[in-house]
Design a protein that fits this description.
This protein is mainly alpha-helical and about 190 residues long. It has eight helices and no strands. The two termini are about 30 Å apart.
Length: about 190
């Protein structure tokens, strides 16, 4: 799902750029929103397969999809969509904005810095999304955020932020470096 999601993100970013939009924030947010629509169904399956409360329920991703469709219907694959849209819009808007400011750095370093910083900024939406997708109790984004804050405080909204920042920093570096290299190669 990461290849499809990242591909959708870069394609939409380039399309919006071709339309004449110059704001990195707007281009990034639009790209992130489209990416969220692509990735959310995969995220629902992934989170359910990883949830300690659901370990015994699903035997494989295919089984998870089948059971989810039978028990909850296709709308279950949109759980956490709003949080995912916000998460991705924040990440891509800040990522592309930071890349445009870090032109003095080698692209791989700029990609790592931009990816890491953007992951730190969008962490609360990521936690909220995962809780919505992995919980048998269906709550709205505000209700989920309030529940996390009441029970765990602000640190609860940043649970798992260090590995996420490292993963997204590396991903931001590899994806932008690869994209620039391939585009340069194809353009001659």
């Amino acid at each position: 799902s990461i290849v499809a999601a990242r591909g959708a993100c870069f394609i939409v970013y380039d399309l919006v750029d071709a339309l004449g939009v110059r704001s990195e924030v707007i281009k990034g947010a639009l790209a992130g929103g489209c990416e969220a629509v692509v990735v959310t169904p995969f995220q629902v399956v992934k989170v359910r397969m990883q949830s300690k409360d659901l370990l015994a329920k699903y035997t494989s991703p295919h089984h998870c999809i089948k059971l989810t469709l039978q028990e909850e219907g296709p709308q279950a694959f949109t759980l956490g969509l709003t949080a995912t849209i916000l998460r991705n819009c924040v990440w891509t808007a800040s990522y592309f904005s930071l890349l445009s400011l870090l032109t003095f750095l080698p692209i791989s370093i700029a990609g790592f810095v931009a990816g890491s910083a953007s992951a730190a900024l969008n962490a609360p939406f990521d936690v909220i999304k995962s809780r919505q997708q992995g919980s048998p109790i269906k709550r709205s984004l505000p209700a989920t955020a309030v529940s996390i804050f009441k029970n765990e405080g602000i640190p609860g909204l940043y649970r798992g932020v260090v590995p996420k920042v490292l993963r997204m920093g590396l991903g931001g570096s590899v994806s932008i470096t690869t994209l620039r290299y391939v585009k340069g190669f194809l353009e001659g």
